[in-house]
Amino acid sequence: MTLDSISILRQYWGFESFRPLQEEIIQSVISGRDTLALLPTGGGKSICFQVPALMMEGICIVVTPLIALMKDQVAHLRKNGIQAVAIYSGMKKREVDITLDNCVYGKIKFLYLSPERLYSDLVRERIRFMNVNLFAIDEAHCISQWGYDFRPPYLELIKLKELHAKVPFLALTATATERVITDIQQKLNFPKENVFVKSFLRDNLAYMAIEEEDKMGRMVRIIHKLGGSGIVYVRNRRETQEIARILINNGIASDYYHAGLSGQERDQKQDAWMTNAIRVIVATNAFGMGIDKPDVRFVIHLDLPDSLEAYYQEAGRAGRDGKKAYPVILYQENDKKKLVDTLQASFPDISFIQQTYHYLCNHFQVPYGAGEGLTLDFDVVTFAKKYQLPLIPVMNAMKFLERDGWLTLSEAVTIPSRFKFEIDSTELYKIQVQYAKYDKLIKAILRTYGGIFENYILINEYEFANKLGIPYGRVVELLKSLEALEIASYLPSTDSPQLTFLQNRVDYKHLYIDHIFIRDRHRVKEEEVNGMIDYIEKAHCRSQSLLLYFGEKNAGFCQVCDLCLIRLHKENQRTQIKEEIKNSLLKAPKRLHDLVESLTLGTEKRRIEIIRDLLDAEVIRLEENLYSWNTLF
User: Looking at residue 180, what is its pLDDT?
Assistant: First the structure.
């Protein structure tokens, strides 16, 4: 590895050395080889593409479905003096156009894209003219239908190779089974296998899965005992508030988090937890992706996750500082039935999917033969209630509609307000003279931001309201008025998921849905659910069970999970009971009843079990109903 990579690492990230496998992955990328890297959650995946991209001329294109992570990384790169931009659902066409121009003609080093953007001819055509040095594919398991989080837009990734055939792919993921590892490379047309895998072992994590009738009481006791900060995962939004209230009532500083909150509320709650103003965040699985908090001491699941892949990622948010941490599942027998019931609800029949499409078009008043490219704010809960449809089947119907190219749905994300002047400074001055009511606001904008004639700038309306001493609503009114006069473009903030129709509306009775794919996907999800239930019921060691699931066949017992601790306790108790039996029989031979009564450790059943084992091993003898110790042992 050249000194360049170390100096870049030191200059921008302040690290003196790479983590395991990072150097090898970077060298593979620099050599121009398509590369798949599997690094556990918190293993430093972003360094693997950011460092080589800075070593080479040109721009790195990063594809990720995690818009919150995308925004966070762009902000971090800019803070370090590296030019980076992002394009994601919710941005207007002109805004996207300017950003792409800057990537073609400017000095941008990183362009982050949501996978849905690859459906756009505009985006693909502009990428053709960029000097691309690397395609980095985050969450690469999403390209495989065998993966736990398959996302149809990922199938568009191969078109990037049509634009720049010699530019390597670096595919990155934290979780993938052997089948998914093979599938990722096939879908991305790797010329030959090239995989770097860091062990999935997290030896500082003491995994536990406890059957418990009183989940709330056990959860509170665990949190009090462990101390530190943590996450409690639940399945629905209502539960987040209820559980947070229970924790607060038990003296534990807590808050709740789910996708239904406004962007500002989500940011405030996340910041409070990150800075330890609160100890525990109770959340749906909308929380956690891309968050790197090192001192999480526990992650508690009160509902069974849908798959071991999802569980490994969520549990892996604990103990990133390398210190002991506890991922805990608290479950009841009925939870397994709920998991199976959810599986069945996740696969609606073809007629339900077609009907959902019909209602979606009616909901947005899309006429037949129109709608292609239409992007709209979308609240799936409101939609389901309006048409009295069950929520889980609706959400999954939309996934299948996405798979077959009818629409695409982005995650909920807060997009701040954006603003850009559409006239030059000379014309703007004339407007200030002609329309006095805009003068103070225009001056305030010009003093606060540079480059606002060339690019869209993120603005805060509340900030201008405070500066000018006028109500927030008046600032918004003036900004909208400037847009109406075509003096500026103003894009108000939004935090809704974005639904995009990819084709013109058709009669839902003729809507093509790939039933073969649905059948195969059902089989995959069934295997995942069974894997989760086996983890609860049949594992001999929690960590070993996870490692075996991900293809690490020589995994030993971790000695720290609940099952290992129970086994070690039994083994220690067995040794102690055996010693008691020896001492008792060396004093005098005894009948079974008297021997069992002479012992102090273990249950009667456990004592008899060990006596029988010792008898089978001829460590003790039985003659005329009397047990005696074999002095050869």
Answer: 93
Give one DSSP letter per residue of 495-563, joined into a string: -S-EEEE-S-B--GGG----HHHHHHHHHHHHHHHHHHHHHHHT-SSHHHHHHHHTT-TT----SSSHH
Identify the CATH number of the domain defined by range 341-413+496-513.
1.10.10.10
What b-and-e string marks burial along 438-463, b requiring 16 or more CB atoms within 10 Å of the CB? bebbbeebeeebeebbebbbebebee
Name the amino acid, one letter, at 30: I
- At the top level of CATH, the class of 208-331 is alpha beta
Asked whether the beta carbons of 379 and 495 are under 8 A apart, the reply is: no
Question: Which ranges of the chain have pLDDT less than 70?
Answer: 1-3, 42-43, 89-90, 289-290, 411-414, 495
Tokens 């709209």 belong to 376
Q: Any idea which architecture 562-629 has in CATH? A: Orthogonal Bundle (1.10)
The confidence score (pLDDT) of residue 272 equals: 94
- Taking Cα atoms as reference points, which of 143, 145, 517 lies closest to residue 347? 517
In the CATH scheme, what architecture does the domain 3-197 have?
Answer: 3-Layer(aba) Sandwich (3.40)
472: Cβ contacts below 8 Å, ≥ 6 apart: 461, 462, 465
Nearest to 33 by CA among 21, 45, 22, 25: 25
What is the model's pLDDT at position 75? Answer: 87
